[in-house]
Model the fold of this input.
Amino acid sequence: MADYLVQFGLPVWLAYGGVALMQCLILLTIMMFAAATFTWMERKVSGRIQDRLGPTRVGGRFGWLQSPADGIKLLCKEDLMPAQADKILFRLAPYISFCASFCVFLALPFSNGWVAQQLNVAAFFILAIAGLEVFGVITAGYASASKWSLYGAMREAAQVVSYEVPFGICVLIPVMVAGTLDLVAIGNMQQGWGINWMIFHSPFMFVTFFIYLTCAVASTNRAPFDLAEAESELVAGFLTEYSGFRWSVFFMAEYGSMTAVSGLAAILFLGGWHGPIPIADLLGLTYSNHAILGWFGELLGACNFLFKAFLGVTFMMWLRWTLPRLRIDQVMTTCLKYCIPLAAAMFVGVMLWTYALPGGILPRKTPMAAVAEAPAWTTVETPGGDRP
Amino acid sequence: MINWHTLFFLLFAVPTCLFAVAVVASANVVRMAMCLIASLAAVAGLYFLAGADFVGAMQLMIYVGGTLVLLVFGVMLTVQGPSVSLKISSANWLMAGLAGGALLIVLLSAVVGIEAWTSKAVAETAPAVEAGHTVAPLGMGLLGIRVDQLSQQDPTLRRGMSGYLLPFEIVSVHLLVVLIGAAHLARAKRRRTASTPATTAPLNPEP
Done:
């Protein structure tokens, strides 16, 4: 897009800088909008699940304006800081969480090619960045100089570090089938009818999806894995000493990363921006017909993707208000004794399945066959070809 | 001459150095760890800038997300009071200065010594790096197909350069052995005698 603007005589720095700024703003808007919507939805969903009404007063019948009202309230609240706290780290902690959560969106495609930075290693990049969010929590826990906060932070560290292993394996399985780490390519491979989705690749993949969901819930620190907050045991865990704006930044980060892992699940397992019925293709909304029509097709894809991510977040809320919180040893048992062996077994299962049935039972694209085409690699010239 | 590449390079390189100095200069253990995180993350930024996406993500994954989480975790477990300050004796300063200085001299001599890095002509005429397409060649290299060596004329030479699979497997098996050994050494010892039932409690499931 920046190249497109340069054609019109814009200076290069302005074009690239402007486009970068615009992408950042769009992503930030999406994240903020997600946070606002999901805080409201969390109340409504929890209310319905517990046979209550949820917010009804602010802004009409469904309490539409609850989120802005909350935002104003949080902005006006006094920002307290314990006297013993490590001042710099206490201030820094929410932004570490938020930055990590935001950076995930940089590599997350919303539709075919609609991505801020199309990385060749997008899936891996997202995994790496998502693991950094724990630093914000640990820093907050330490800097608060409160024993509740420290307990929460320690639990979070133990939990997140452990769950990164099965989470990584679960992401690896679709990546192995697709033969690429590029999320745009993985999404495009699942084109066509819903049966082409990665989750229907094999029975093993189907199970993997649910392991992925478990690990995603655990790694975003949501109930029933919200040991770091555990309001019935630790007051509010690492959030105990936070109030006002900094507290809300933590929650924006949490809702942001919930959206991100749901989006990643949608791309890796649920066909990304392809719906169960290829409406865009059937209506002829492709680039081969016209650029504008193709753009509308992409827009439809983005709606598809956002809807799937939204469903994922709703599922997480449903879980939160249905299941009781696990104890820390149960959390660890779930991870080490169930998730990791299951994920590893599914890995082997999918590998054997792909090896035995490279075309799958149903006619579909065979990504593995593409890897076998050795002549394709002769064209790939890597930098640093003079290495010994 | 400052251009955009230089500016972005400085944007990451300067924090790397500043935070690295801050790690040494700071007296608070937790702040040191945080500065180390910032420094290593800025190094990852340099890798991304150089078009080595995989290495950059690896840096974030292993050093920032893996090693340092454990480090911070360990520091938090051992730290006494909200702000522990470390006193470093002058002998330690001397030793560290000698070791660090020697390493710096070696690295600087390497930087200055390599012809290709200093000559401006090469740097400007070098082919544009096709950024971000490093994963597939790396993976194929691991499997024994060196895509960057396919143009090598001599077939015996080409075969000699194939693959990292065996070294990689040796290293990973070695790591696995080390991990199992560490877990074996660190696990709670069960007493043979039944006189102390408290120590025969099941293992703590926390890692």
